Write the structure tokens for this entry.
Amino acid sequence: MKKLIAAVFVVALVFLAIWTVPYWTHGSREVIVTGVDHKILRQGDKVKDVYLVFTTDETYKNVDSPAYLKFNSSDIQGKLIQTGRFKISYYSFRMPIFSMYKNITKAEKVD
């Protein structure tokens, strides 16, 4: 019984660590947006919009995120279509091997 409790505890800790990674990998910076793209991913009956934002340094994604209560990715993308210099806030990290991008949570035009 003690082994079962220990195993459940370890699994819960691992799940908690994985779930909270985006919360301690957030940041903000100024970037120069050079272009944007819109991808539609279909899996059976489900459809998901994925917006990509290209900058001079790296590529970001812009998707809705219930964990961050972010449901305005299309509005943010509308701002970024203008291209130019923006201050963006983001979370997560870039892992090219898994095609993972930092997710933009906020974008403001900088003059």
Notes: Helices lie at 2-20, 73-80.
